[in-house]
Amino acid sequence: MKKEPSPVPILVVDDDPIAAETLCYALSQFGYSSVIALNGMEALEHIRTGNYRIVISDVEMPEMNGIDLCREIRRRGSCGYTYVILLTGRSDTASVVAGLDAGADDYIAKPFSPREMQMRIRAGERILLLESRDLMIFALAKLADSRDHDTGSHLDRIREFSRLLTLELSTWPEYQALIDGIYIQSIYETSPLHDIGKVGIPDRILLKPGKLTEAEFAIMTQHAKIGGDTLQAVADAHPEAVFLRMAHEIAMTHHERWDGTGYPNGLAGEEIPLCGRIVAIADVYDALTSHRVYKPAFDHQKAVNIIREGAGSHFDPNLVRAFLKLESKFQEVKATMNDAPENEDSEFMPRNRYEHTSVTSLQLSQPV
């Protein structure tokens, strides 16, 4: 059975029309549509349209060879990632290294097997799918955060803080059975979805400038369950999308507390999934060190002290230990991804509508 046509046609680049047509025919046998460019400049014009995400280019071409073309594709870097496969009649190591150094993703020596070419293209499709998935996740997260006046940098910081904590924990013996490279990448990709449930909270509550009533606050806390349930439904419908299981756990549990006083389910200790415990610290640190309408940003040391005091009540004590080892890296991330002061809000840090009068109660007393 032939493969269904690729959603994005493949761009074949070769100054030899016969060789290019031969390759296009081979691709068609596997269901791929393709377009020919006879030189590097023509190829760049095609790529500029955004319609070609996979490029197969001969190396030996006049004027702009395949390696130079690859280098120019990477320099321009527009229209999403372009997966580049170089074809060459030379198989020496120096040629391979030069191509990879220019940014090529794969290298095939002539004469090639059509079946091998098909497998290389499939590998490229998987890479592009991962990139598209990451972009989709981040777009959904930004949609949710845009309703509460958070910025894109907030999401970038959350994912980087989460990655740093997870990477540190991966070196601890008690976590090595759980945390591997896939886990680290998954939490980096899915942590921005932590507050996606905000899309289900009415604007009159989400954006209310005054104090929330008890009934309104109860509705506000439902964003964790809304987000978790939504992602769980999608995960059930698409069991092949394993990353959605972690996204569900993060959205549902990042407001739970180690002592069981969090929401929405009052989970305690290790009942809370590790990814939820990790994102809880990332989210709180970012809230404490960010400008809010009712307060200036707390300095780094004040935020560190607050998180340290929350060990065993608000946070997993082990994760606080990991955070304290990494606090300087958190400070660096905050400095490099900082925002200009804006009217931002956070569930952890109360707005002026919440009833808090002291610094201690402001930070940790109410499950928000």
From TrEMBL:
Q: What is its EC number?
A: 3.1.4.52
Q: Which GO terms describe its molecular function?
A: cyclic-guanylate-specific phosphodiesterase activity
The HD-GYP domain is annotated at 129-339
User: Which Pfam family, any one, appears in the UniProt record?
Assistant: Response_reg
Annotated GO biological process: phosphorelay signal transduction system
* Annotated ranges, domain Response regulatory: 9-125
Alphabetized, the UniProt keywords read: Hydrolase, Phosphoprotein
Q: Which domain of life is it from?
A: Bacteria
Q: Do you know which InterPro entries this protein is assigned to?
A: CheY-like_superfamily, Cyclic_di-GMP/3'3'-cGAMP_PDE, HD/PDEase_dom, HD_GYP_dom, Sig_transdc_resp-reg_receiver
Q: What is its EC class?
A: hydrolase
Q: PROSITE patterns annotated for this entry?
A: HD_GYP (PS51832), RESPONSE_REGULATORY (PS50110)
The chain residues annotated with the modification 4-aspartylphosphate are 58
Q: Which PANTHER family match?
A: CYCLIC DI-GMP PHOSPHODIESTERASE TM_0186-RELATED, CYCLIC DI-GMP PHOSPHODIESTERASE VC_1348-RELATED
Write the protein's name.
Answer: Cyclic di-GMP phosphodiesterase response regulator RpfG
The gene name reads rpfG_4
